[in-house]
Amino acid sequence: MELEDYVGKRVKITSVNNNTYIGKVIGFTQALDNEPEIDSIDIDNEIDNRGYFLLENEIKSIEVLE
Length: 66
Description:
Layout: E1 10-15, E2 20-29, E3 40-45, E4 50-55, E5 59-64
Antiparallel strand pairs: 1-2, 1-5, 2-3, 3-4
């Protein structure tokens, strides 16, 4: 999964816990700059108007909406 490709796009993310996030991806952090060393993205979630930080291993699927 190339998480950096989703920055600036409106997406629907389903987590491995079956939580759903819909919104714009506003940031990406590569594994080398993260602890633990796993890629991550930041999303502004439209469902509850909150921001979320998701590690790549927490993401089951990503669908681009726009």
